[in-house]
Amino acid sequence: MPQSLDAAGAVPAPSPAAAILRTLFRRNEIALLISLIVVIAFFAAASDTFFTVRNLTNVLGQSALAMTAGIGVAIVFISGEVDVSIGSLVAAVAIPLIVIMNHTESLALGIAGALALGLVVGMVNGYLAAYLGINSLIVTLGTLFILRGGVYLYTGQTAIPDDAMLESFFQIGNGRLFGIPYPALIAVFLLFVFAYLMRHRPFGRQIYAVGGNPEVARLAGYNVKRVKFVCFIISALLATVAGIMLASRLGSAVHVAGLGFEFQVVAAVVLGGVSLSGGVGSLFGMALGVLTLSFLSNGLGMLNLATEWQLVITGGIIIAAVAFDEFKRSRL
């Protein structure tokens, strides 16, 4: 039997890779990509040592921590909630990681201990915010202080060294493959995995729906509380991964690790076009925001600009990004 015109003229569905590339080059991502290129071009012209393989790969390695944690924070923001506890969590998870490795000389057990702590923190944040209805900013701000205080109490405000000195642990934060730092490779892998989840799997679509309009999502049959609960767990576990990479780089559990890290990540997420109101944003935009801020900070440092002015410039960029987000929403 001859095929119908509809069947004969059917257009094959695009592959996930092609769809991800289309997502990358949407309007917001194009603007961010252009901004990143302008930043790199400016500092390449202003400093002889900026546009070198060594410096570029170093920046990629340094930005990997913010990108990894930023994936989780962006997902929480898209769901309509907030998570600012990640800075203290990065420091806290290093304690069971280092302590367990020192006692057992097992990297697997150390990582399991760190992930267990991250899982508990994510579950507590998610339960209080999603199921008890406590404002997520207040919940995660409280968690930030509790974890930081706990780290100070346990460590006595002194670093806990990595006495096991496992080569496998050292390589996590310091190893390279073809010159590219392992943390950067880990971050890019996680970015593509979660970008695919957010755009091409039912749970990702549920997150956008819940963040866009929780009541409509509930009427559509989505379990709004469960979706938000899982988002907090994802955020905590990804912050844990960032904490493991940082502990490997430092070679110890440091009580001041991650101080201000949450602001760096939130700034990148907002700059990347993730709406504070929920339901809008992409992980690729977040990644471009991380890279833009990382190269900007690196370039300003190479120009010997005072740290105070670097903070002022970064703060101005954050305010401009939020203002632009509000302008876009008001025009819709």
Radius of gyration: 21 Å
Number of helical segments?
A: 16
CATH class group: Mainly Alpha
Average pLDDT number: 87
- Global morphology: globular
Order of helices and strands: HHHHHHHHEHEEHHHHEHHH
Strand order of the biggest β-sheet: 1-4
Low-confidence stretches: 1-9
Number of strands: 4
Largest sheet: 2 strands, antiparallel
CATH topology, by name, is ABC transporter involved in vitamin B12 uptake, BtuC
- Residues in helix, %: over 70%
Span from first to last CA? 49 Å
Our estimate of the beta-strand percent is under 5%
CATH architecture: Orthogonal Bundle
Q: How many structural units, i.e. domains? A: 1
Return the structural class. Answer: mainly alpha
Describe the secondary-structure layout.
Blueprint: H1 5-8, H2 16-24, H3 27-46, H4 53-78, H5 86-92, H6 94-104, H7 107-131, H8 136-155, E1 160-161, H9 167-174, E2 176-177, E3 180-181, H10 182-200, H11 202-212, H12 214-219, H13 224-250, E4 252-253, H14 261-271, H15 283-302, H16 307-331
Helix pairs in contact: 3-15, 4-10, 4-13, 4-14, 4-15, 5-8, 5-13, 6-7, 7-8, 7-13, 9-13, 10-11, 11-13, 14-15, 14-16
Structure notes:
The model is unreliable at 1-9 (pLDDT under 50). The chain is mainly alpha-helical and 332 residues long. The chain is globular and about 55 Å long. The chain is built from 16 helices and four strands. The protein has one domain (19-327): ABC transporter involved in vitamin B12 uptake, BtuC, CATH 1.10.3470. The strands form two sheets. A two-stranded antiparallel ribbon has the order 1-4. Strands 2-3 form a two-stranded antiparallel sheet. Helix 3 packs parallel to helix 15 and helix 5 crosses helix 13.
